[in-house]
Amino acid sequence: MADDHEQIVVRRNKLRALRDRGAAPYPNDFRPDHAAAEVHARFGPLAEAELAAAPRVAVAGRIMALRDFGKAAFLHIQDRSGRVQVYVRRDRIGDEAFECYRLLDLGDVVGVGGRAFRTRTAELTLEADELRLLAESLRPLPEKWHGLQDVEARYRQRYLDLIVNPEARRVFEVRARVIRSIREFMSG
Q1: Which DSSP helix (H) or strand (E) runs through 120?
Q2: Looking at residue 163, what is its pLDDT?
Q3: Which of 145, 104, 144 is nearest to 128 (CA)?
């Protein structure tokens, strides 16, 4: 609990730093035009030459992984449909946006604009030319490898279970579809 409290204090300080920079920590003007699954479906099958000519896309999602390399970084962002990797470079998004990126944490929701390409390991990735914070996450996500192990905690903090547990999210989506189908059948 002490670790969580300390992380919350650090995240609140980062939020204050973002506000001091003039960044709106909860803007509502970013409009994604693709979901993560749509990015993979549309650009995954394309050859390198076709990817180079492909249009720019905008996606939004929660940061689930972050690997920083100084002047560049890789993020994995997750939306309702899945995950997509994002490549962020200081010289592409600019100094101001990159300094705001430095204040981001796992769990924050970001909006990303950019073009799709493949990394050396052939992973489909968006090279960001825009990166914006859409929602600061003031509470840390559960630890990556252990997640939510306590069954009671999974029920008490259902929102976290749905964020970090793909199987729980899949079951939730299937049940929601079944309930919707039953309602349509009963009303029709």
Answers
A1: none
A2: 78
A3: 104
Query: What is the DSSP code (8-state) at residue 54?
Result: S
Q: Buried (b) or exposed (e) across 20-34, using 16+ Cβ within 10 A?
A: eeebebeeeebebeb
Strand partners, 112: 59, 131
Provide the 3-class DSSP secondary structure of residue 111: strand
What whole-number distance in Å separates Cα of residue 127 and Cα of residue 74? 9
What are the distances in angstroms from CA 42 to CA 50, 127, 142, 159, 184? Answer: 11, 16, 32, 29, 31
Position 160 scores a pLDDT of: 75
| CA dihedral of residues 167, 64, 75, 131 (deg, nearest 10) | 110
Say how many C-beta atoms besides its own lie within 10 A of residue 65's C-beta. 13
Neighbours of 133 (CB within 10 A): 24
> Which tens digits make up the pLDDT trace of 28-39?
899 999 999 999
Name the CA radius of gyration of the chain, rounded: 18
Q: Strand pairing partners for 110? A: 61, 133
The whole-model pTM stands at 0.79
Q: Which amino acid is at 10?
A: V
CA distance 176 to 170: 10
